[in-house]
Amino acid sequence: MKFFLFFYLVLQVIFSAAQNDTIPKWTLNAYGDFYYSYDFSNPQNHEKADFIYNHKRHNEINANLIVAKANYSDKNIRANFGLMAGNYAQYNLKSEPTLAQFVYEANIGVKLSSKHNLWLDAGIMPSHIGFESAISSDCWTLTRSILAESSPYYETGLKMSYTNRKDNLQIGLLLLNGWQKVSKPDYIQKPSFGIQINYKPTDLLTLNYSNFIGTDKADSLKSLRTYHNFYAQFVPNKKIGLIAGFDIGTEMQNIKDYSTWFSPVLIFRYSVSDKVNVAFRGEYYKDKDQVIISTKTTNGFQVSGLSANLDYKINNHVQCRIEGKLYQSKDKIFQNNSNNNYALTTNIFIHL
């Protein structure tokens, strides 16, 4: 509560100062993602598999994410504040304090140098890990990959970031409350850290490396988690795009138990026209020791996935999508004691 009160007061001060400036510094935007999904395993409680947090509900019309956001930007200060509702907030922030479950973003940044593009931001921010976010319109596919669903979507802490003069290299250093945490749990006192390096050697290619070093377990367990995220995005022309990603994580517990999990993802997108896109995704996720995803089965979580996506852009603010997806597991982890899972999802999102 103290943090949000402080953030509100700071925004009030900034807003009051901005009233005397002729240059508009505030922007407001809104986003809504409404969907219908059918899971052919027909879960009776309307909930898809436990490792899915977006477009979670089966056989009902629902809202995945609704966001209203305000941004302030000046030469030496910037701020973001967004409120949200929907299935993403309901399931992905289930363990957070009630008030925090409605906050999509709340951060303030200060420029540290007059000569260099060096910033210090503090608060709740989008995760520095991965090429997918909770905002469907920013992603090439309707649903998220298992890799994205099993790594942080958001983080809380301090971020120092530097962008070079060519605007093709960004470096970030982070001090975090933990692995996708708004507030640090009582049983964890150790800090967590992160690094991000994003480099664009040409306008056609983006290379990214991000990591996390910290813990998600009680200090008494002497746990250390390291996570490495690599991806390359190649868009040679207006028609074709390719994303190749690979994440690998390790966790040590009690200085003797050591586990590893990893996930490769490949997404291909093709623009049929200015209004129509198709995308195909192949992915695999192996977490045999069930560090991230618990199955309570012999081989743990070992799942491959394929999806096909068709997008239609109605106008600059509205787009609809349809996606078919298949999961295949080594063990029988899905409804009806099955190795396979099939789902069909369609959505419409509005971006204002």
Q: What's this, in brief?
A:
The protein has 352 residues and is mostly beta strands. Helix content is 8%, strand content 52%. It has 3 helices and 16 strands.
Relevant terms:
16 strands, 16-stranded antiparallel β-barrel, 352 residues, mainly beta
What does this molecule look like?
The mean pLDDT is 92. The chain is built from 3 helices and 16 strands. It has 352 residues and is mostly beta strands. A 16-stranded antiparallel beta barrel has the order 1-2-3-4-5-6-7-8-9-10-11-12-13-14-15-16. The chain starts with a helix and ends with a strand.
Strand content: over 45%
What's the end-to-end separation, in Å? 29 Å
Biggest β-sheet description: 16 strands, antiparallel, barrel
What's the count of strands? 16
Uncertain ranges: none
Helix share, percent: under 10%
Shape: globular
In terms of quaternary structure, what is this?
single chain
Topology:
Blueprint: H1 2-18, E1 26-39, E2 61-73, E3 77-85, H2 87-92, E4 103-111, E5 117-126, H3 146-149, E6 154-163, E7 169-176, E8 192-202, E9 205-214, E10 224-234, E11 240-253, E12 257-271, E13 276-287, E14 301-313, E15 318-329, E16 340-351
Antiparallel strand pairs: 1-2, 1-16, 2-3, 3-4, 4-5, 5-6, 6-7, 7-8, 8-9, 9-10, 10-11, 11-12, 12-13, 13-14, 14-15, 15-16
